[in-house]
Amino acid sequence: MNGPETRECGTHSFGQDIVTADNETVARPVSRVIPVDPFDLVIFGATGDLAQRKILPALFRRFCAGQMPKGTRIIGAARSSHDPDTYRALAADAIREHAPNRGCEDGTLEEFLACLDYVPLDASGTTGWTELAGHLTADRVRAFYFSVRPTLFGDLAERLHDNGLTTPETRIVVEKPFGRDLHSAQELNAMLASHFEERQIYRIDHYLGKETVQNLMVVRFANMLFEPLWNSQYVDHIQITVAESAGIGNRGDYYDRAGAMRDMIQNHLMQLLCLTAMEPPAKFEPDSVRDEKLKVIRALDPVLPHHIVRGQYQAVPGQQEAHPSYREAADNPRSTTESYIALRVHVSNWRWAGTPFYLRTGKRLVARSSVISVVFKDAPHSIFGQEGGRHANVLTIRLQPNEGITLQVTIKEPGPGGMRLIDVPLDMTFAEALGPEGEDPPDAYERLIMDVIRGNQTLFMRGDEVEAAWAWTDPVIAGWEQRGEVPKPYESGSTGPGDAELLLKRDHRSWRGIKP
Ligand code: BG6
After folding, report:
1. Which protein residue has the closest C-alpha to ligand 1 atom 15?
2. What are the distances in angstroms from CA 33 to CA 77, 185, 261, 288?
3. Sequence-separated (6 or more) residues with CB below 8 Å from residue 283
4. For 136-183, what is each residue's pLDDT tens digit?
5. In 176-324, which ranges are continuous DSSP H helix?
6. How, if at all, do strands 394-400 and 369-376 pair?
7. Is the CB of 244 under 6 A from ligand 1?
8. Substitution candidate for ligand 1 out of 53, 178, 248, 263 with most atoms within 8 A of CB
9. What contacts 69, CB < 8 A, 6 or more positions away?
10. Phi-psi bin for 284: left (phi > 0), alpha (psi -120 to 50), beta?
């Protein structure tokens, strides 16, 4: 049954062909729409940062793409006492700021806003729950997005249950952080399991929704070229870098209790590692994929203390005001939390024995750049002798920005003067591949929210996967806490602490550059 404020939202279609540089007309690949049935989506924390920056803009873009059918309802729920119209105005501002009118026709925003409702609600009290029930429709997919602080997850789950709002077609979407260690993750899983079945729980890691992260699986498993070489016999090592140029901003309160290990390695980089290292799943289906990822996590060796480098960013002299140091931003002058971490990690299984994975992530680095580099071994014998020098093929998967794939190959430097060899990139930028009018790839949240509605858990983390990731992470953190280690300072705008360079130098290797 729809509530009194309900307005009808329309369906918008979109999906013109594109004309390539060679004047060929091809279907626009990024806007192919797999329709879903009308659904109800409730956003708890509807006035919060994530809802404004990501969830509402993502829904709007899917609406523009014609994916949200007539009759879909999006119900914002939060403490603030908005009425539906003031909430729509708030949502409109957020969408204008975070989802510029990409490919949408005039008037689309108004049509989208007609799908929105708002219910003032107390997540841990009794207010608003009956009103919320009045906005929900029977016999359709019902998704509840927990975009609230984790301490409220339990309250929400309980109240949904106690107010009879859960149906077999109900799904809940849970944002990270999913616990802060194995114990808290287990408690959280157990609490959710007391109200929902695993098939109803969608634990988001937004990295899995990124286009190029999905492409990693396609590149690996849909091309014959790479998979035969994808093992320790041919791969020297793998580097996974997620560098950010931004600092911790105003999230100091959360971040200072988390640090880069909990905030990024345990989830985002772990997922990238899994997708890079896993065996081919039998099918692209939720449990096949997640079983293979879990095997990778369980095959991770404990990390040796001298294979860990932690750093904390300092302000550049003269720029303290605009770009404060980590400790100032965190408002904790004695903080020993890391804003940077580099690790040498081993996957102890048949495929990867002896091939290290180097992971690094940090804030306030020289550029925003997320890249996976698969560095192949040198050719076993150089027929060009000393003159040829050493050359390795490197497959670089750029996740962001400038999504694409580069294969570094060795060729002869053109011109006379002997056999001089140089490395050149075979470069495929996805934007170019999509044609001259290629657009930014869809935001991760667009894909993930629609997967929730479709009931596809492939790109979401299963409970045992999250717990296994914490089981590997906990001893690493406990180790440096016991040793009383403090992070090494590094200058904002640099590539991180010098010790991270040594981590690879000791192995006669070096990091790939961090380029925007
Ligand atoms: C979040 C982390 O999960 O991911 C942030 O909490 C980080 O600290 C962000 O900045 C990075 O996401 P993206 O999509 O900007 O690479």
Report:
1. 244
2. 28, 35, 37, 25
3. none
4. 999 999 999 999 999 999 999 999 999 999 999 999 999 988 999 999
5. 182-193, 211-222, 252-260, 270-277, 286-298
6. antiparallel
7. yes
8. 263
9. 11, 35, 36, 37, 38
10. beta
